[in-house]
Amino acid sequence: MSQLRLNPLTGRWVAIAVDRADRPGDLVSRQVPVEADPERPCPFCPGNEEASPPALETYGGQGQWVVRVVPNRYPAFDGDEPLHVFNLGPAFTQAAASGIHEVLVFSPEHTSGWADLDDSQAAVTMAAIHDRMKDHGRRGTIRYTQVIVNHGREAGASLEHPHGQLLGIPFVPGEIAEEEAGFRRFEGSCLLCTTVEAEEAAGHRVVHADDRVLVVCPFWSGTPFEMMVLPRQHEVHVTDASPPDVAAVGQAIRTALARLRGSLGDVAYNLVFHTAPHRHAGPFHWHVHVLPRVTSVAGFEQGTGVMIDIVAPELAAKHLSVVG
């Protein structure tokens, strides 16, 4: 029998409809190549650095980089202009899409991904994210920085080489505003600190646990094999977290993605980092969403905003935990 479960972060209901998983083809592996022309030289591989704009940050030693951050050649947000809203008519409001759009190349290896990073590479990748977000936060026109990784064509990737993106934008997006409201509704304690305690006590949705991080398939999962990476130490911003906690999150993401690949194969996924907006004091607790793209978002989800998960998170966590 299907269930409705409430996501307290967003205030939205999700439907857990496990009987629908019996339909053939509902869970899909990656099938579409990322690059239309795989023979074209990769702009992110070592030796092709001139194909990208000059690096903003380079991490590594002895003349070899391990992580690079470069401006996006085709930015969605660009410029230092403050947010000025113009009303062009009774229903037409417009503003310049000013901001920052950067590419995080987190491995020199073309065919690897976050699931393949060793502890050191995962830590350096997270240090680069921390540093760039700190830089964004110093700019008064940037109100929020969204960090993402798109893996696979179905998840929006256009290049095979492992990379992420940092987008500094001049407004607080609705998803983050909803999560901030969720933290405010949960009076008396932190929503995600409580979630860490409750999920660990329940046990059957835990994918990975160590002294610094808990990874769970949350009770309110909206998509199959969805995971949340939760630092145990309460911090509102990524930039406030200690270096060991930041590194541990990167390593936990690696473990979660390796288990996902071991369970389902090389599926497409999105990593979405959520932190409080720049200069907001909270309440919030930074975290990472792991969103595999193994089902389609159809008309009901588009029309209502209610996600349908055909794999119960308890079953998903069981599969993921079995994988070594």
Tell me what the structure shows.
The protein has 324 residues and is α+β, with helices and mostly antiparallel strands. It has a single domain (3-73, 97-322), classed as HIT-like (HIT family, subunit A). Helix content is 25%, strand content 25%. The chain is built from 6 helices and 15 strands. The chain has helices spanning 119-137, 174-185, 191-202, 243-264, 299-304, 313-322, and strands at residues 3-7, 12-16, 57-61, 64-71, 85-89, 92-95, 100-105, 144-151, 163-169, 206-209, 213-216, 227-231, 269-274, 287-292, 307-309. A 10-stranded antiparallel sheet has the order 3-4-7-9-8-13-14-12-11-10, with helices on both faces. A 3-stranded mixed sheet has the order 1-2-15. α1 (119-137) crosses α4 (243-264). Residues 21-25 have low confidence and may be disordered.
Number of separate strands: 15
The largest β sheet comes out as: 10 strands, antiparallel
Number of helices: 6
- H/E element sequence: EEEEEEEHEEHHEEEHEEHEH
State the CATH topology.
HIT family, subunit A
Residues in helix, %: 25-40%
Strand content is 25-35%
Question: CATH H-level name... which superfamily?
Answer: HIT-like
Could you list some keywords that capture this structure?
324 residues, alpha+beta, HIT family, subunit A, ten-stranded antiparallel beta sheet, three-stranded mixed beta sheet, 25% strand
What does this entry show, briefly?
By secondary structure, the protein is of the alpha+beta class. The chain has six helices and 15 strands.
Give the topology.
Elements: E1 3-7, E2 12-16, E3 57-61, E4 64-71, E5 85-89, E6 92-95, E7 100-105, H1 119-137, E8 144-151, E9 163-169, H2 174-185, H3 191-202, E10 206-209, E11 213-216, E12 227-231, H4 243-264, E13 269-274, E14 287-292, H5 299-304, E15 307-309, H6 313-322
Parallel strand pairs: 2-15
Antiparallel strand pairs: 1-2, 3-4, 4-7, 5-6, 7-9, 8-9, 8-13, 10-11, 11-12, 12-14, 13-14
